[in-house]
Design brief:
This protein is mainly α. The chain has a two-stranded antiparallel sheet with strand order 1-2. A hairpin with a 6-residue loop joins strand 1 and strand 2. The chain is globular. The two termini are about 25 Å apart. About 55% of the residues are buried.
Length: about 500
């Protein structure tokens, strides 16, 4: 997630209570992890519930993707602005604002009786998360001194973020088959409100010593608008086609918004994304790899959940628990990767992880309609999970290679934005390609139950092969990266 400016500057405070609070670093870390956990879980927690939501709200299958992409797109678009606001107006204050926003949006999502309100509430959840995540991480880096103490805290935070993405689908299954899918959202309400109330008693207030005179709110709106409109247009092509006036017009407007964003960034006093950062070729390539890798990751969760329930007829709870080995092997892969990069350059480790990810997606592409968990699904999950776990750590190293300390916050925010946007775009592209074949396959099936099952399997195969090509693209870009090692002196990766 985004690391604001404070990561590369010494901790500073703005109140006298700081020394008293600093004696409770364990409590602060636990509190911040709970706040961050809400945002991490909601990236994937709805995936297992999608078939149930589809039936309850009578949502078209093509529109299901917006329940996932609405959250990730707004989160990615406003992450950098959230970090800037936290640095300027107070990290605890922005964290509280995000928690209340997230709680209210969760309540609206749980009460939603139609598609529009649910998707809108998910987008507002993303806005709340864009305030919570950078503020929480910035508070963490200002609480723990640079060195082993901070590294240990960041390790806890990073491990929680990686494992929670898989834990989200497990909890999603438990809630859906237990109290109901609406409780996926309702559970956030008391947690968010209680955390917002408790924050002044647990957390110090801090802000950057530098006072910004302006914020690139226009840039954040233009960036998010570009992402939202592009993703919406991709989904609409399923019904109206690429050559329709609606599709072409929407793409034209998205292109105008993108050009406007670039112009604003060139002229803004405090740009959201200073375009000079892209002169660093390694950083740019690392962000492209992140977009493709997280496109693969979110595509996996979205379509594997639909496949297991729609084709294999798993219950929601069985679907959620099916991901448990994937969660475990992802954690193992991350641990192995962390050890490997101390002995060998990060590039071959990253390439190995991406290769396993691609192999796992290829195995999912070949799943038969009568797959069994032990012989078909589990091997694919273990392969792709190992690949994802191994890839995460060297990807972070690549994102910081050659970056000056005063640009560390910007680089961190950029890689987080790429991850969130990549996940949203990945699902949107895979859904567009997969669901565009639904009608022709339904005609081919002629209502025959066995053929309908086979037709649905082919739809998901199309999605998994798109995820495979995302990972192949990531491999090709990663091949262009230099050999990277972590500097023994300052911890900043060096080529």
């Amino acid at each position: 997630m985004s690391i604001p400016e404070s990561l590369s500057s010494p901790p500073e405070t703005s109140n006298a209570a700081q020394p008293q609070v600093a004696r409770r670093p364990g409590l602060i870390l636990a509190f911040l992890c709970v706040a961050g956990l809400m945002t991490f879980l909601d990236v994937t927690v709805v995936n297992v519930a999608l078939p149930t939501i589809e039936d309850d709200l009578n949502i078209s299958e093509a529109y299901l993707q917006y329940i996932v992409t609405g959250y990730g797109t707004v989160l990615g678009g406003f992450l950098l602005l959230g970090g800037r606001l936290a640095d300027a107006f107070g990290r605890r204050r922005i964290l509280q604002t995000g928690l209340i926003t997230f709680a209210v949006a969760s309540l609206c999502a749980g009460l939603a009786q139609g598609t529009f309100l649910l998707i809108t509430a998910r987008a507002v959840q993303g806005l709340g998360a864009a305030f919570i995540a950078p503020a929480a991480l910035s508070l963490l880096t200002n609480t723990f001194a640079e060195g082993p103490e901070r590294n240990k805290a960041l390790g806890v935070w990073g491990a929680m973020g990686g494992i929670s993405s898989v834990a989200g689908v497990i909890l999603g299954g438990l809630f859906t088959e237990g109290p109901g899918w609406r409780w996926i959202f309702f559970v956030n309400v008391p947690i968010g409100v209680a955390a917002a109330i408790a924050a002044p008693f647990v957390l110090p207030e801090s802000r950057s010593e530098e006072r910004r005179k302006s914020f690139d709110t226009v840039g954040a709106v233009l960036l998010t608008g570009t992402l939202v409109l592009t993703i919406y247009t991709l989904g609409q092509t399923i019904d109206v086609g690429w050559a329709s006036a609606r599709s072409l017009g929407s793409l034209a407007v998205a292109a105008v918004l993108l050009v406007a964003f670039i112009l604003v960034e060139q002229r803004a006093q405090s740009p959201l994304i200073p375009l000079r950062i892209f002169r660093r070729k390694v950083l740019t390539m690392a962000n492209i790899v992140a977009i493709l890798l997280f496109g693969t990751l979110v595509t996996l969760f979205f379509f594997a959940s639909l496949f297991m329930q729609g084709v294999l007829e798993y219950t929601p709870i069985r679907t959620g628990l099916a991901y448990a080995p994937l969660a475990l092997i992802t954690a193992v892969g991350a641990g192995v990767s962390s050890q490997l990069i101390t002995k060998v350059p990060a590039k071959p480790v990253l390439l190995s992880g991406l290769a396993f990810t691609a192999a796992g997606m290829l195995m999912l592409w070949r799943l038969p309609s009568d797959s069994t968990y032990l012989t078909h699904v589990l091997p694919a999950f273990l392969t792709v999970g190992l690949g994802l776990g191994v890839s995460f750590v060297p990807l972070q190293i690549a994102a910081f290679t050659g970056v000056e300390k005063n640009e560390a916050g910007l680089a961190a925010g950029l890689i987080s934005t790429s991850q969130e946007a990549g996940g949203a775009f990945g699902v949107a592209i895979a859904a567009t390609i997969a669901f565009s074949n639904t009608r022709s396959l339904e005609k081919w099936a002629h209502g025959d139950p066995d053929l309908v099952r086979e037709a649905r399997t082919r739809v998901f195969h199309h999605a998994f092969i798109v995820g495979f090509w995302f990972s192949v693209g990531a491999i090709l870009i990663a091949l262009l990266l230099p050999m990277m090692r972590t500097s023994e002196h300052d911890g900043i990766p060096a080529a």
